[in-house]
Each structure stands twice: as structure tokens, then as C-alpha cells.
Amino acid sequence: MLVSGHLYTAGMSDPDLLIRTGGEMRLSNFLIWQAAYAELYFTPVLWPDFGREELEKALSVFSKRQRRFGGI
């Protein structure tokens, strides 16, 4: 809590799903502390083309995952 209280996202809940567009398979240190237990979704679709249909695909994949929050 000491570190998270000093981040620019202090007081906000951590993300459950982090979507990376553009075909990149890395986070580039984006929300690295907050995304520790987030599910990651990578898509080749570029951000300007990421619309409702792509979001629904990402949410569908996310809904089928079994979250373990760091457990085995």
C-alpha cells in the first residue's frame, strides 16, 4: 500500500483487463504496478480501428478465463 498510494492512480481500483492494440506483445511499462494481476489481451488491430466489435471480442475472451490472481 505504501507504493500504490503514491502512484497517479491512487484511490482507483486496479484494472482487471489490459488490452494492447497494434500487434505489440509487450506492455512497455504501462501501468506495470497496477496491472500485476490484470488479464492481458493482445490484438493486431490498430487503435484507430479498435471499435465495438473488437472490444466485444476482448471481453468474450476475458469472460472465459479462470483468474488465479498470482496463484497456481
Report on the structure:
- This protein has 72 residues and is an alpha+beta fold.
- The chain has one domain.
- Helices cover 17% and strands 11% of the residues.
- The chain is globular.
- It starts with 16 loop residues before the first strand and ends in a 9-residue tail after the last helix.
Summarize the structure in short:
With 72 residues, this protein is an alpha+beta fold. It has one helix at 52-63; strands at 17-20, 39-42. The protein has one domain.
Which key phrases capture this entry?
alpha+beta, 2 strands, single chain, two-stranded parallel sheet, 1 helix, 72 residues
SSE map:
Layout: E1 17-20, E2 39-42, H1 52-63
Parallel strand pairs: 1-2
Overall residue-averaged pLDDT value: 93
Count of discrete structural domains: 1
For the largest beta-sheet, the strand count, sense and barrel status come to: 2 strands, parallel
Distance between the termini: 24 Å
**Residue ranges: pLDDT <50 for 5 or more in a row?**
none
Strand order of the largest sheet: 1-2
- What's the gyration radius in Å? 14 Å
The portion of residues forming beta strands comes to 5-15%
Fraction of helical residues: 10-25%
Count of alpha/pi helices: 1
Q: Structural class given helices, strands, pairing?
A: alpha+beta
What is the total tally of β strands?
2
Which term fits the overall shape?
globular
Elements, N to C (H/E) = EEH
